[in-house]
Amino acid sequence: MATARKDPRDTPAMRQFRAFKQQHPECVLFFRMGDFYEMFDDDAVRLSRALGLTLTQRTQGIPMAGVPYHQLDTYLRRAVDAGFRVAIVDQVQDPKDAKGIVERRVTRVITPGTLVDESLVRDEAATRIACCALEENTITGAACDLSTGEVILFSAHPRTLADALARLSVAEVLCAEGTEETGPIADACAELDIAITPRPAWQLRPDEALQAVRNHYKIASPAGFGLEPTDPEIPPLGALLRALAETQTSDPDDPYATGAALDHLRPPVRERTDSACIVDRISLRALEIERTIRDQQIEGSLLALFVRGPAACRTPMGKRLVRDWLCSPLADRARIESRHARVEQLAFDETLAEHLLDALEPVQDVARLAGRLALARLSPRDLVALARSIAQLPALADTLADARAFSDAHAHLDALRTSLEPLAHTITTSCVEDPPPHLREGGLIADAVDPELDEARSLQRDAASWLADYQARLIREHDLPSLKVGYNKVFGYYIELPSAQARRAPAAFTRKQTLKNAERYITPELKDFEDRVQTAQARAIQREQQIFEDLCAQARDHLPRIQDFAHIAAELDALLCFARYARMRRWTRPTMTDEPVLRITDGRHPVLEQTLAASFVANDLDLPDAGPRLALITGPNMAGKSTYIRQNALVTLLAHAGSFVPASEATIGICDRIFTRVGADDALHRGQSTFMVEMAETANILNNATERSLVILDEIGRGTSTLDGLSLAWAIAERLAATACRTLFATHYHELTELEERLEGRVRNLRVLAREFEDQIIFLHRIEPGRADQSYGIQVARLAGIPDPVVRRAREILASLRVHETQLQATTPPQTPTDQLPLFTEYIRHPAIDRLRETKLESLTPLQAFDLLRDLKQEAENNSP
User: pLDDT for 738-777, tens place per residue?
Assistant: First the structure.
């Protein structure tokens, strides 16, 4: 009878794998087996395709792919970028101690929003995970940067949720099951290409969420955080805390069993949108705050100045804070001027700035080091880096001792000094200067720190010396001149005698191995030494691990104070960066006012002035409180209209962020919002054409702009027919002028310049100067009052490389159209001020003309012709005013 074939999946290891897979069905499992993390079945197939791994088989019919354990972070980054959630299954038992299958456990779950390891996160931007809940017509949310412990509560209208998520740099959104595919939360995530993860709906119930908040923060009521138990932010906050606990715990059935791992999560803070100048995601993109539009790269963006430039922030914490300041500028005049005052002191006190720079230079990413400390992800190098960073606290405090604008920071640092200075000293004196990346082979703790560790190391270092002494003593005591003491990996330590002397071996020698011309022996003393030496390395590593954990525990006791230090250091770094740019680029402190004005003298584009250097042309802008607040800018293509309007928006944004500005003088009224409508874009995945997107963005501006807003418009109405586009641009300009918001409107519709006379006192014409010379166009990039008479589009097309035959033909057509236009104007009767614009008069269609064109005169009887004329006359009388 044939023996039944055994199921290849019915093995201890595969049963263990399936058990973990059932616990985390939404994740791919990185299953530790020896020196590799292996993936099986569908996980292996999907990852092999996405990451280019070699697909093999464990046994017949079980697909398998693996990555070396020491390259885990590299493949984790690639897996997360590819959209996978990953559960790490580690061996938590030494295989030598295992009786049967090695014990394993899911040690962490990695998702796009829960990245904490240094190799997985970017220095210049936070990686946040958020939980959102729809409450009536408002979406409330809680966002957390797990790597630093920051927790932010926010709220948004469904239409502006995408703006909030972009502003907070959210990489993953949690929501109630059933809402992940449709609804405003799903729409916002799809628009930003953010991972969305469903959670059980019961976790967002108010009572369950409140209990989760109480459990995590160990509080009876959230009132201490400024929250009421019934506040709408409680459900998303509680669900978020529960989800984070589950991703970091090793016990999925009791996520709060290891809740201490999330002790670095700080009390939640409400986002203060009432005191912020709102910059939506459209404006962030159009103004290239974080990324360039074309390449989607940080290089060339405004942020790159402060995180990559010659005066960039010295710490990753400062870089992230600058990013947050640029994406969420202030609208509180007192807070803005406070930042300006501190930047001013650093900009004009060069000695103070240099000393502060020197003190910040050794400070590393303390915020994320503290996060990894709490999550038990701290490496030996991280621990030493944390201690060296904290050790700079006294230098920072002393530097700010006499700095009037920094009195609050100095007082705070002085208060932290007492507890953190001894901690830094303990760690730095306990560890070597060049720590290893891990503790697998030891080497972290310095000599003379721990007697037990020193003894174990002494055995390893002094083994050769002891063996030489032991060999000399045996030769002397037993008169065996050819005796040797040696070691090999197979037999360990041994005493070797040539065959001729083996007959005189002492009784204490026990034969261990017989060779061709020699005998090898062991003695109790040598065996004891062997045991001690062979265990010395293991004991040394074990002892180092214990000392390392003790040092981490001491640091963990000071976690809130370490986080306070990180926040102060980040703020000092960001302000110093602003000040160094102000001094290096001759930026000036803006005057902030509550009046809705925008007056800039010699304004420059902060990015282009650096890349174009001496060739950049500075320009003025004056939108007064009591004068025209809508500037219509006309001029040739490539002359600099778009640069001009964007640079003024960036100057305004920098001022609200607390920075000095690239101008010789600037008076800027506090803005509630900065709106932009720039460039051509579509949203085909939502069924929206380029023109539809343009109109939707413009509608958002018209519906939400106020007298305190700044509006930047570039070429509105170009996505449709000339008459439609001009009509829309005209009406939009009239509406914005009536709103009295500060507006920069760049356009090629020269007809709009008539608005200066029609809306006297509300609209002002500006033009970009250009000159023609021998069929060439020369751009002067200078803005002056007045209107442009042509766009020079054909000349620009020639510069762009359009073939000469096309250019010549375009000129012929243009000449023909101009002649036709002149003829039409000559035959057009004079118009009253209430008549339509000439452009519309020339081409406007009339119902009577349309009826006559459609009528076949040759088939009409005299009576029918008479009736037609009578009808047309009657319609004209009925339609006359």
Answer: 999 999 999 888 889 999 999 888 999 999 887 776 666 7
Region 624-637: what's the mean pLDDT?
88
Cβ atoms of 778 and 772 within 8 Å: the answer is: yes
Across all residues in the chain, what is the average pLDDT? 87
Q: Is 437 left (phi over 0), alpha (psi -120 to 50) or beta?
A: alpha
- Token representation of residue 779: 């751009």
Phi and psi, residue 708, nearest 5°: -90, 5
3-state SS string for 809-877: HHHHHHHHHHHHHHHHHHHCCCCCCCCCCHHHHHHCCCHHHHHHHHCCHHHCCHHHHHHHHHHHHHHHH
Per-residue burial over 602-640, b if 16 or more Cβ lie within 10 Å, else e, is ebbbbbbbbeeeeebbbbbbbbbbeebbbbbbbbbbbbb
Torsion angle of alpha carbons 816, 821, 823, 825, nearest 10°?
Answer: -170
- Residue appearing with tokens 């958002």: 700
CA–CA gap between residue 356 and residue 508 (Å, rounded) = 71
Residue 790 is predicted with a pLDDT of 67
What is the average per-residue pLDDT within 623-634?
91
Q: What is the DSSP letter of 103?
A: P
Q: Tell how far CA 10 is from the center of its chain.
A: 45
* Tokens 């614009």 -> residue: 837
At 118, the pLDDT band (50, 70, 90 cuts) reads: confident
Backbone phi, psi, residue 518, to 5°: -155, 165
The most confident of the ranges 9-18, 593-602, 719-728, 791-800 is: 593-602
Which run of H or E residues covers position 339? helix 333-348
Alpha-carbon span 348 to 336, nearest angstrom = 18
Predicted pLDDT at 879:
63
